């Protein structure tokens, strides 16, 4: 791992990535992810059948070496390879795993649709609703602080399916295609001009 890091961690990447256009940032992140993937280091925590298989001890060594060599963080892929993958592996169907896990390795980007204007850490207060209509759900609401949503292909979405249920009961977990009609992503630009965080508005979105 140490020899690989010495040979592949891009020198001066922090300076080179400061102030770049969004398209250049995305291209850099995706290229770095594919370099890690080629070496077998992109998803060491996944099962071996999906491209991982490292022991916990091996993962510790890998991440120590990446940190020691100041390797770029996988900012865009973070939700995809951790949150989305863990969800799919633990609770997804075989069809969902076959559809999304290889796509994540190919660069599919995910975001989280959890926080809302009136429900940040207190997700029990979320107001986004998902109403069943036949074999689909119709989703309406707003999400806030969705990291990387402007680049995301899919979203891990929490929505209330039972408005009468108390607190966190009645909340369901959806996989939302971000290209669905009615999805409106609006970047939140900070004082430095960055727009990593986004608002996501959902207007009669079908899932």
How would you describe what is shown here?
The chain has 207 residues and is α+β, with helices and mostly antiparallel strands. It contains six helices and seven strands. A four-stranded antiparallel beta sheet has the order 2-3-7-6, with no helix packed on it. Helix 5 (78-91) runs antiparallel to helix 6 (94-105). The mean pLDDT is 95.
Compact overview of the structure:
This protein is α+β, with helices and mostly antiparallel strands and 207 residues long.
How helical, in percent, are the residues?
A: 25-40%
Distance between the termini: 42 Å
Low-pLDDT segments, ≥5 res: none
What is the string of helix and strand elements? HHHHHHEEEEEEE
Total number of β-strand segments?
A: 7
Oligomer: single chain
Radius of gyration: 19 Å
What's the tally of helices?
A: 6
Per the principal axes of the C-alpha atoms, what is the gross shape? globular
Question: What proportion strand?
Answer: 15-25%
List keywords for this structure.
globular; single chain; 207 residues; alpha+beta; four-stranded antiparallel beta sheet; 33% helix; three-stranded mixed beta sheet
Please specify the SSE layout and strand pairing.
Layout (H helix, E strand, L loop, with lengths): L1 H7 L4 H5 L4 H18 L16 H13 L9 H14 L2 H12 L4 E4 L15 E5 L2 E8 L10 E7 L10 E7 L5 E5 L10 E9 L1
Parallel strand pairs: 1-4
Antiparallel strand pairs: 2-3, 3-7, 4-5, 6-7
Helix pairs in contact: 5-6
């Amino acid at each position: 791992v140490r020899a690989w890091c010495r040979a592949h961690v891009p020198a001066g990447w922090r300076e080179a990535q400061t102030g770049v256009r969004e398209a250049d940032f995305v291209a850099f992140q995706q290229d770095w992810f594919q370099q890690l993937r080629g070496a077998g280091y992109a998803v060491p925590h996944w099962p071996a059948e999906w491209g991982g298989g490292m022991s916990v001890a091996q993962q510790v060594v890998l991440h120590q070496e990446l940190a020691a060599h100041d390797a770029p963080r996988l900012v865009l892929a973070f939700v995809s390879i951790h949150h989305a993958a863990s969800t799919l592996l633990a609770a997804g169907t075989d069809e969902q795993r076959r559809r999304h896990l290889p796509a994540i390795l190919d660069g599919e980007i995910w975001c989280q649709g959890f926080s809302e204007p009136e429900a940040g850490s207190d997700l029990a207060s979320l107001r986004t609703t998902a109403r069943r209509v036949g074999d689909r759900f119709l989703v309406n609401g707003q999400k806030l602080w969705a990291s990387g949503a402007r680049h995301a292909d899919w979203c891990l979405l929490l929505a209330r399916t039972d408005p009468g249920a108390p607190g966190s009961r009645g909340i369901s977990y959806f996989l939302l295609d971000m290209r669905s009609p009615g999805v409106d992503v609006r970047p939140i630009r900070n004082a430095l001009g960055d727009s990593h965080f986004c608002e996501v508005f959902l207007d009669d979105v079908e899932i």
